[in-house]
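Lab channel / #folding
Pinned by the channel admin:
"Please post every new chain as: sequence first, then the structure tokens as a reply. Keep commentary short and put observations after the output so the thread stays searchable."

First post following the new format, from NK:
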Amino acid sequence: MNKPLLSVNALMIVLNDASQKKILDEVSFDVEPRSILGIAGGSGSGKTTLGLSLLALISPAMRIVSGEVVFEEKNVLTLSKDALCSMRGSRVGMVFQEPLSAFNPLYTIGYQIIEVMEAHHVLSGEKARMRAMELLSCCGVSDPKRIFSSYPHELSGGLRQRAMIAQALACGPSLLIADEPTSNLDVTVQAVILDLFRSLREKMALSVLFISHDLGVLRRVADKIVVLNEGRIVEQGTPSVLTDQARHPYTKALLQAEQI
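Reply from TO:
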């Protein structure tokens, strides 16, 4: 049996102040190779903190009390600063909610994709340029040469999100962490981006941790869904099981919110 690509074991994160309020409370789950795991939860559930903790990027206002984050058989929480920098962007790619603020407005899309490859000594020069355009094409960009030379503000929201996914794939990671990657897109573009994640999982043998407040989105893209509420996992299962046999009131509330 294959080992999980990522195992989060009893992870506890608290506010780094006198209150010691729990932000994540004994959170445990696995991400299998070539799978899409959905993390569902509303505002304040801890889902974004969870995503950042997998890269050891939590705010100084918080601290990890206990637990493990084991990625490719190494505990991320005990890695050196150099090892973490090497892992981020190379073995783990990050797709953010709003690419316009994540991209540097002063540089073209192509420059910023190549910059990732050069930073991790993957490719440079003409080979990096060709690889960047290939990745844009893989992400469904019909005119990669134009997008390569464009600045972020010149693109639509859907094209910016495709470009950010291409950047996250630049070094051939085994895991993508996608934090609300479709929440600012209209319904039609959202559906296309969800299809893209599923397609990339097959083409590039990727695993994806897909974080969203929208259970309906996760039911369309994920193989399994973990429901997070106030820092605790309250329920988990396949999309069909959660739809038909949801037990926890919070899961039922998320399902009902889809109808509003």
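NK: The longest helix spans residues 187-203.
TO: also worth noting, The chain has two domains: 1-8+26-58+69-91+175-260, 100-172.
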